[in-house]
Design goal:
The protein has 1937 residues and is of the alpha+beta class. The protein is built from 35 helices and 64 strands. Helices cover 44% and strands 18% of the residues. β17 and β18 form a beta hairpin. Keywords: Cell projection, Coiled coil, Cytoplasm, Cytoskeleton, Repeat, WD repeat.
């Protein structure tokens, strides 16, 4: 036995207490628990026997201890205050432990020692929310716990060590029972809703596992299973819902045990099954019976396989209950072993003690405890005494004395209770009257006398049925004058309280209708008769009720004249939550902005010259959160309670989604005023409300009592006190009540509990009014137990009906009496007339009417007859037309089934009855195809993924002219500039071009720089391709599925599929029918064939002897009713007159013609058969011969010649053969026909199956079509809207782009105008400013022609004109003063007239340009304004488009969801299913996904798995390379940054040295070039004529030179043509010689083929062997480069080589025949795959020196080079692969391979080789040129950089960094290097420098598991977890220290 872990617990810590804030003003002890009167008896197995006199059960949040002898109940609160899930006792007699599994978040199992209730153990993390069942093993060492919703985890505990041994998910539904097998320690069973599961704790190679096998019901109906019992033979017994016993074996039902005549064992579910002894089984049922069964009868029974029932009767049967009441037994517990006494849990309310004895007569059962059976619906307290009464849904009334903690009375009503009131002493002086409402619609008034203890203390005073459905609420107004009852029939009934009688009674007033069923009632405190009602669907109704009845209710109780005010609650919670979220988002944005502002200030402070766009920097870069549509419950939620406030407003509490708030409404207008939140109860319903002093008390939906302190702001509910009492899942509190003196508070719950509490705050002294005695009724009142009893209104209606019937009968009797009197009077007149004389007698004619009257009547009759005749004609035509339609619909459109019958076997084959595809079908199909073609032409499907429009930016590539060169042409620059200046200009331009190119290059690099938040474009392309083609199958069941254009389901497409399916069904059956019709025609041909053959046979047999004649036995005929049923459809024989003969020959239609031909053939055939000769007849020949002639001939004929005899014999044999052939042919034809019938009969089944499946598919298509019709109209509207919005936004975007383009063009033109103006200004300065009249010219030039130029014009001429020219000298300024008075109208004296005119021309050009600039500016402003408006419209259009697009997507998703819900039928073969998990367990195939075999998709998926695995390996390899490459790059970057800094410093020093300060070289060069350009322009103006003459002479010289060169070119072309001709002749001769040589070479190859054949075979063998060695050794190199394994072990795997290098070298033809490259002649194990070139060069020098010193005299120079190169590559691989520490182990192998590279004739000392190898390996660095320390630094820096960019909490910072460092080390370094002290030291030193690092609360185990899992995924070896844990712990400890 495991030793128990001893843990000390503080007992007070594990008793839950009230929840109250530290700042609360509410006293923590405001109330204290007093007593519990109830019991949650409906909870399964909620009873535990701790000792003989102590029972324990759970109710709400309390553990109840019931003393059997004293009937006292004590309680203990739960530990966590979240409810109690299950309680159980440890079965070990030495351990009297009570185990409690509590509920809540991550609940705990507590084990206490009884009776001290000392905490022994706590088991945590067994479930997520609740425990449903607990059970111990028989020895009590292991505990099993079953979790509830949502995880349903089954956990096996070693409770002593507080460890979880095994764990598994049991099922996906509630588990109600769990039991260990007492016979097999490793077996346990769970059962519950719709399942039973068998578990086994099995030992596997990976350890102990919990294996489960779900029970399969087979033919038995699936049911809930409660009682289970393991048997010694591993069978399991269980109960079922219908009360039988199921016997399970190997997961299947072997037997079902029932009573005789298939009666159930119990009349309800079996809750417990026990094995009493080896022969008896005891069952406990909810029917109240305990049965004992002799089980050997069942064991010996062997029922048939198809009926596995065993019928037996119980040997003993015990009933628990009394009188007509049977207990609902949920659990029984044996009090003592071997004793017949048991305690029983009664689900109908109570605990029983009973005896189960088969030897003696048991005592009757005794009920020890009484309580409600389930929900308590109402509670009231007495206003004059210490009593509280409760009414349950079970129809029971309980009255308790809450001071004595005793139940004093209980009564069972005939109906389920709903609500009641206990009238106060102010209304009823006795204080004993209660008025109840029940679910049968009856109101019952009782008087309860609590002062006596007799059984008749309760009197039924009055019974009224005022409602037709269940009563929901009852209430009495504060004045005590009105009683109101509300019902589910949406009515309220008003009664007047009559106080005249000794006991108060009710007088009906009337009823009123409500909008829906009433859920709560309250009264206006200011108006005593004004009622306010809260209804089921959120309506609030206010009514001023009448207090007495009036005359208007004499015929009906309906009060339709009473005014009613109603308003309806509108849900606003969704909007409140959205506003709350929006505020949170705004607050987050403000915080982000404040943070960015601080960053911006810091950046400006660090770099004041930095240019930052503040608006973009401070803009929020996060995407806007998308909100779901507002949720409005439909129908609205019900109102739980309604109260008036001190401000005369209404407080409403609602259920469902709107819970968590109190809604305040205006009581007059019905407007919502405020929503008061309930802190920490945002989604919890408030079911009850009570107000006392400065407190409001709420009864919550989660079973908690909430006391709120009323503050100055009485809407503030933030100060509250909370206590969990009732069940937190099912214990909502429907009522709270105070005692009459306010000293006690009571609460009831749906869990069946009644709790009392003491109110510990001081209250006002209340003196109860002394009640009067309760008078006795003189006559008992009968109760109503008939459910069909009439209500008051129904009685009224019945009375009214009876009154109307009575009046009607009276009127009828009066009429009959009048008729009788008239008849008697007529008889008397007739008698008097008979006694009169004849002359005075009235005849019959005298009694006739006048003829005119008769004629008038006749005319009217004729008119009526004409109308009737026309009606009849119309009816005739109507019937005729209807008959035609019926004929077309039922006959012409139907292919009636025919039947073809066989001839010999009489088998038949039927055709199908099918409806033809008429014109309407084909017309509809053509219309659908036309619509599809039109849709294909005019596709307007919305592209839901196109959400952006790309713009293309064009870059101007026009060459830029420097500002200082404006005015100079390119020719001037090339010719006029000096050589030095040209070099300076070229240098300046090259520098500028380099800067521009570098800038563009950076732009390209930045544009190509991958975005870390996006995938690489190539990866995106591959992913998109994979989504389309590989494995990423878009399921239509995906909630986010969006169909593309081709996949979209439309009515037209679906209708086409429906029509195609109908056509396929028709074709399948019609094709088969055509075969039947062909077979019928074949039968007709067969009959004609037989007819012909029989005629011929008759002719033959006429010449044959009778004895040789064979009569054929063929009965071939048609059954016309079955084979030609269409004959009966000829309606003419039914419509024509009887004497008219039907001309069948004139009947049209092929089938009727065929029928007539069949009849004719049949008649002919029958005639032939009747006239054919029989066997006994002789052939007779009639002739006209005379008797003499006859005699003579007869005598002659008697003599036959031999020839005649021979011919006769021959003819007879021929006829006999022909007869046999005819009969055989007929038989063969008949056999073939019968065989064809049989084949078609078999084929009919296949056709029927195909057609049925097609019909099922058609049914699916029709369902989908109906769904599409529901959505099509709305979808088309949305598509049209989206199309329009999309077109609008594209149009606006194009306008925006066009406007932007226009602005760019205008700006470009604007810049050109500015440049032109600058050129004009510059031309003016160049032409005029060096003249003596410069000041005068400037005055003219500056003057405006018109003054409309804007002062803010973008033209720079004004400023440039005002600036003084740098070229003016001081002397010219003095001259200008004298020129101020010159006139502009004429040219001054001594002034150049051309220059004077040029100034005016330039001024005009300047003014024109300035006007153009102003115009362009105005155009830009106009276009910009239009652009702004268009941009706003585009944004609005974009928003509208997105909104409508979202609506369209949601609509399509709803449509697709409904389409997915349509069921379809798919046929699967058994070989398509793989549902065996193992040999005993099956997989669930209900949720499988089916693929078709098109394109072999599954095969592609399987193949893709392998490709992905290879890609993963390749990615990991690249990742390792990239890590090293990254480290190299970072090193290179640091080096280049250092170089850049050095170069900048060097440049600065050079500038200081040369210029004395740091200057801009571009500015220096520009200054020089500008000065030189100006000088050159001045010089050009002076020397322009000389230049022109110079260039004209030069042009003439060039023309002469050109002519000479053209002549030389013609001469050279002529010579080249002659040489080309010679070359052609030589080329032809060369080709001829080449063909001769090819023929000779071909002959030589044929001769040498046989000689080289042996050499080729040998070379192929060598090549194949080398390939195998290459593959083997490459694997070795890869393994050695990744793993820290020794070289010797690896060599042992591959050596010895079967074909050595030495053998290869001994082949004389090896080098010349196999390898042209010397590297290829070396084994791949000795050749470097990719050696570092620098390392190879260094080693090559050492090796070459070694070879020259030791082998130079033995080898030639070429061999020295080859040997040195090969040895260098081999030693480079050795140095790359193996460290120097392993050299001693691998040196012999290296020397051996070294010698293989040297010819056999050459000898080298092994000592020299060893020295060389040691020197090279010892001095060689790693190939990446990085030490282990540098690699570690790169890994750590990369990890820290990644962590700094991620938003990681401070507590998770260190685990994240350490985990990533070790993962990078695993894939980068060798395993042995990871645990080296250098790596650990490097990590500690680097991480200790980080300020954000702290090593508190680090979960080392979680980090180790994550690293180990990563290592297992990336490496073949496993890492030692303990070693890794020690390394991490040492790092953390060092960081902490």
């Amino acid at each position: 036995m495991n030793e128990e872990k001893t843990t000390t617990h503080c007992e007070d810590e594990f008793i839950s207490k009230p929840q109250v804030k530290s700042t609360s003003l509410i006293d923590e002890n405001i109330i204290s628990f007093d007593h519990s009167f109830g019991y949650d008896c409906k909870k399964m197995y909620n009873l535990v026997l701790m000792d003989k006199e102590a029972l324990v059960f759970a109710s709400g949040n309390l553990i109840h201890f019931f003393n059997v002898s004293t009937s006292k109940v004590t309680t203990r609160r739960s530990a966590m205050g979240e409810g109690i899930g299950f309680i159980v006792k440890n079965p070990n007699p030495d351990l009297n432990h009570l185990t409690i599994g509590e509920n809540g978040k991550n609940p705990t199992i507590f084990i206490y020692k009884f009776p001290e209730m000392k905490l022994i153990s706590m088991l945590e993390k067994g479930a997520k929310r609740q425990f449903s069942v607990l059970d111990y093993t028989p020895n009590g060492e292991l505990l099993a716990s079953q979790g509830g919703d949502p995880d349903y985890m089954l956990t096996i505990w070693d409770w002593r060590r507080k460890e979880i041994k095994l764990r598994a998910k049991s099922f996906s539904n509630d588990v109600v029972n769990l039991m260990f097998s007492p016979y097999i320690s490793e077996q346990l069973i769970t059962s519950g809703l719709g399942h039973i599961k068998f578990w086994k704790m099995a030992s596997t190679f990976t350890g102990l596992k919990l294996q489960g096998l779900i029970g399969r019901f087979g033919k038995t109906e699936i049911c809930d299973i409660y009682g289970i019992c393991p048997m010694p033979d591993e069978k399991i017994l269980s109960g079922c819902e219908w009360g039988n016993i199921l016997v399970w074996d190997a997961g299947l039902i072997k037997l079902e045990v029932c009573r005789k005549n298939r009666k159930p064992c119990h009349k309800g579910p079996i809750t417990q099954i026990f094995m009493r002894n080896a022969e008896e089984i005891m069952t406990v049922g909810t029917d109240g019976f305990i049965c004992i069964w002799f089980w050997e009868t069942v064991e010996l029974a062997d029922p048939p396989e198809d009926d596995r029932f065993v019928e037996i009767e119980p040997s003993h049967e015990f009933r628990v209950g009394e009188n007509d009441y049977n207990a609902e037994l949920l659990k029984i517990i044996q009090i003592e072993p071997e004793m017949p006494e048991y305690y029983a849990q009664d689900g109908l309310g109570g605990i029983w003690k009973c005896e189960v004895s088969t030897e003696t007569l048991p005592n009757p059962p005794k009920q020890l405890f009484h309580c409600h059976a389930g929900e308590i619906v109402a509670m009231c307290t007495s206003s004059v005494s210490q009593h509280v009464a409760t009414l349950g849904k079970d129809g029971r009334l309980y009255v308790y004395d809450y001071i004595k903690h005793k139940m004093i009375y209980h009564h069972q009503f005939v109906a389920a209770g709903c609500d009641f009131v206990w009238l106060s002493s102010s209304m009823d002086p006795t204080g004993a009257v209660m008025i109840f409402g029940f679910d049968d619609g009856v109101v019952r008034v009782i008087a309860f006398d609590y002062n006596i203890e007799a059984d008749d203390r309760m009197q039924l005073v009055q019974v009224i049925k005022c409602h037709s459905r269940a009563i929901t609420k009852v209430a009495v107004n504060p004045k005590g004058s009105i009683f109101v009852s509300a019902s589910e029939d949406s009515t309220i009934f008003i009664h007047q309280l009559m106080k005249d009688s000794p006991i108060i009674s009710l007088e009906p007033v009337g009823f009123m209708k409500t909008p829906s069923a009433v859920t709560c009632i309250n009264w206006n405190p200011n108006e005593g008769s004004t009622i306010i009602l809260g209804c089921k669907h959120g309506e609030v109704t206010q009514i001023d009720l009448p207090e007495s009845s009036n005359a208007s209710t004499s015929t009906s109780y309906h009060l339709d004249q009473v005014p009613v005010k109603t308003f309806k609650f509108k849900s606003v919670k969704s909007q409140i939550l959205r506003n709350k979220r929006m505020k949170e988002i705004e607050l987050e944005k403000m915080k982000k902005r404040e943070k960015k502002v601080k960053e911006l200030e810091k950046m400006k402070k660090d770099d004041p010259l930095m240019e930052i766009n503040e608006e973009e920097f401070l803009a929020d870069s996060d995407d806007e959160e998308t909100f779901q549509p507002l949720h409005i419950p439909d129908p609205p939620n019900s109102i739980l309670w309604i109260q008036y406030t001190s401000n005369d407003t209404l407080w409403l509490s609602l259920s469902g989604f709107d819970a968590g708030y109190i809604y305040e409404y205006d009581s007059i207008k019905g407007n919502l005023m405020m929503c008061v939140p309930i802190p920490e109860a945002e989604n919890i319903e408030i079911h009850s409300y009570i107000h006392v002093d400065n407190f409001t008390v709420f009864g919550m939906g989660d079973g908690k009592i909430r006391i709120n302190l009323i503050k100055d702001d009485w809407r503030d509910l933030s100060d509250f006190w909370l206590l969990s009492m009732h069940d937190n899942f099912l214990g909502r509190i429907p009522a709270l009540k105070f005692s009459y003196d306010r000293k006690f508070l009571f609460s009831i719950g749906v869990d069946g509990n009644l709790f009392s509490y003491k109110w510990n705050l001081p209250v006002k002294q209340f003196k109860a009014k002394i009640p009067t005695a309760v008078p006795k009724l003189l006559k008992a009142v009968d109760d109503i137990d008939d459910p069909n009893f009439l209500t008051l209104e129904q009685k009224k209606e019945k009375e009214n009906d009876e009154k109307r019937q009575e009046v009607s009968n009276d009127n009828k009797m009066k009429v009959l009496k009048m008729i009788e009197e008239l008849r008697v009077e007529f008889d008397e007149i007739m008698q008097t007339n008979s006694l009169m004389p004849t002359s005075q007698k009235l005849t019959t004619k005298d009694l006739h009417l006048d003829d005119r009257i008769s004629n008038d009547f006749q005319q009217k009759l004729d008119i009526l007859m004409d109308v009737v005749r026309r009606k009849k004609e119309f009816d005739y035509e109507k019937v005729k037309l209807a008959g035609k339609k019926l004929l077309e619909y039922f006959i012409d459109s139907i292919d009636f089934p025919i039947q073809v019958i066989g001839i010999n076997n009489r088998k038949s084959v039927h055709s199908f009855r099918i409806k033809k595809l008429g014109k309407d079908f084909y017309h509809l199909r053509d219309g659908v195809e036309l619509k599809l073609r039109e849709a294909a032409k005019n596709k307007r499907m919305v592209d839901l993924n196109d959400t952006s429009i790309r713009t293309v930016e064009s870059e101007s590539t026009a060459p830029i002219v420097e500002s200082f060169l404006i005015g100079l042409s390119a020719v001037d620059i090339e010719t006029k500039l000096e050589c030095q200046m040209r070099r300076l200009l070229n240098k300046y331009r090259q520098r500028k071009s380099r800067e521009i190119a570098r800038k563009k290059e950076w732009q390209i690099i930045n544009a190509e720089r991958p975005n870390p938040e996006q995938d690489h474009p190539a990866d995106q392309k591959f992913i998109e391709e994979a989504r389309k083609t590989i494995g990423n199958y878009k399921l239509k069941t995906d909630p986010n599925f969006e169909a593309n254009e081709n996949e979209r389901e439309t009515i037209v497409k679906k209708l086409q599929e429906v029509l195609q399916a109908r056509e396929d069904i028709f074709n399948i059956r019609n094709d088969y029918n055509q075969k039947i019709f062909k077979l019928r025609n074949k039968k007709k041909n067969l009959i004609e064939f037989i007819e012909r053959k029989l005629r011929k046979l008759k002719e033959i047999q006429m010449e044959m002897p009778v004895k040789d004649c064979v009569k054929p036995h063929f009965s071939v005929s048609f059954d016309f009713d079955r084979e030609f049923p269409e004959r009966n459809l000829d309606l003419k024989k039914y419509l024509l007159p009887k004497n008219h003969k039907l001309d069948l020959g004139s009947t049209t239609g092929s089938r009727f013609d065929l029928m007539n031909s069949r009849e004719k053939a049949e008649r002919q055939l029958m005639t032939i058969l009747r006239n054919s000769p029989s066997d006994s007849e002789n052939l007779t020949i009639s002739s006209k011969l005379t008797s003499n002639n006859f005699e003579r001939l007869k005598s002659i004929d008697k003599k036959s010649s031999p020839w005649e005899d021979e011919m006769k014999n021959l003819r007879s044999r021929r006829h006999f053969f022909e007869q046999q052939q005819i009969i055989e042919k007929i038989k063969l034809k008949v056999f073939e026909f019968d065989h064809e019938i049989e084949e078609l009969s078999n084929e009919r089944y296949d056709v029927e199956v195909k057609a049925k499946f097609k019909e099922l598919f058609l049914l699916t298509l029709n369902n989908e079509l109906m769904i599409l019709k529901d959505f099509e109209t709305t979808e088309n509207v949305l598509i049209e809207i989206v199309d329009n919005k999309n077109a609008e936004r594209k149009y606006l975007m194009n306008r925006i782009m066009q406007a932007q383009s226009e602005i760019e063009m205008i700006k470009q033109h604007f810049e050109e105008l500015k440049e032109s103006k600058k050129r004009v200004d510059q031309k003016f300065r160049l032409k005029c400013l060096d003249n003596s009249f410069a000041f005068f010219f400037k005055k003219i030039y500056k003057k405006k022609l018109h003054e409309n130029c804007d002062n803010d014009c973008w033209v720079e001429g004004k400023s440039s004109g005002s600036e003084k020219s740098e070229s003016l000298k001081g002397s010219q300024l003095d001259v200008s003063l004298s020129l101020e008075n010159l006139s502009e109208d004429k040219c001054p004296k001594n002034c150049d007239q051309n220059l004077y005119d040029l100034v005016f021309q330039l001024r005009h050009e300047r003014d024109s340009l300035e006007d153009a600039i102003i115009t362009k500016k105005n155009e830009i402003e106009s276009i910009q304004a239009d652009l702004d408006m268009t941009t706003q419209r585009q944004k609005k259009a974009e928003d509208d488009y997105e909104r409508n697009r979202t609506k369209l997507v949601e609509l399509r998703q709803r449509k697709q969801q409904q389409l997915n819900d349509v069921d379809t039928v798919i046929v699967l073969k058994m070989d398509q299913l793989q549902y065996f998990k193992n040999e005993k367990e099956f997989a669930d195939i209900e949720s499988t996904l089916l693929f078709n075999n098109q394109n072999l998709l599954i095969c592609k998926l399987y193949a893709r798995v392998g490709k992905l695995a290879l890609e993963t390996i390749e990615a990991k390899r690249k990742h390792r390379i990239n890590v090293i490459h990254l480290a190299k790059m970072k090193t290179d970057i640091k080096f280049m940054e250092k170089q850049i800094t050095d170069l900048k410093d060097e440049t600065s020093q050079a500038m200081l040295k040369k210029f004395g300060r740091i200057v801009d070289l571009n500015e220096v060069e520009e200054t020089i070039l500008r000065k030189f350009a100006f000088d050159m322009q001045v010089e050009m103006r002076a020397n322009s004529e000389d230049i022109k003459r110079h260039y004209s002479n030069k042009i003439n010289e060039l023309k002469k030179s050109k002519m000479n060169k053209e002549e030389n070119l013609n001469r050279v072309i002529q010579e080249a043509t002659e040489k080309l001709n010679i070359l052609t002749v030589l080329e032809e001769e060369k080709n001829f010689l080449h063909r001769i040589l090819m023929n000779q070479a071909r002959k030589k190859e044929v001769q040498s083929y046989h000689e080289d054949e042996n050499d080729l075979s040998k070379l192929k063998e060598i090549s194949n062997h080398q390939k195998e060695q290459i593959e083997m050794l490459q694997r070795e190199i890869r393994a050695l480069s990744l793993k820290s394994k020794s070289f010797v072990n690896i060599r042992q795997k591959f050596d010895p080589l079967t074909y050595s290098v030495t053998q290869l070298r001994r082949d004389s033809r090896f080098e010349d025949s196999i390898c042209s490259n010397p590297d290829e002649s070396i084994l791949s194990s000795t050749r470097a795959t990719s050696p570092d070139q620098e390392a190879l060069n260094d080693i090559l020098k050492s090796v070459k020196k070694f070879v020259e010193e030791n082998l130079a005299d033995q080898l030639e120079e070429v061999e020295v080079e080859n040997v040195s190169l090969n040895l260098s590559k081999y030693l480079t691989n050795i140095a790359l692969t193996f460290p120097s520490v392993e050299l001693d182990e691998t040196l012999p192998e290296i020397i051996k391979n070294f010698c293989n590279f040297i010819p056999n004739s050459v000898h080298v000392s092994p000592e020299n080789i060893a020295k060389l190898v040691a020197k090279i390996v010892g001095n060689f660095n790693e190939p990446n040129n990085l030490s282990q320390s540098e690699v570690m630094k790169a890994i750590i820096n990369s990890t820290i950089e990644t962590a700094s960019q991620s938003a990681i909490a401070s507590d998770s910072y260190l685990p994240f960094i350490l985990t990533n460092i070790f993962q990078q080390m695993i894939i980068t370094m060798r395993i042995d290097d990871i645990s080296s002290p250098e790596c650990t030291t490097e990590i500690i030193e680097r991480l200790s420098k980080l300020k954000a690092i702290h090593a508190r609360n680090v979960n080392v185990d979680e980090m180790v598991n994550e690293i180990v899992n990563f290592a297992n995924e990336n490496l073949e070896d496993e890492i030692d977890e303990k070693l890794l844990q020690r390394i991490i712990l040492s790092i953390i400890n060092k960081i902490n220290s």
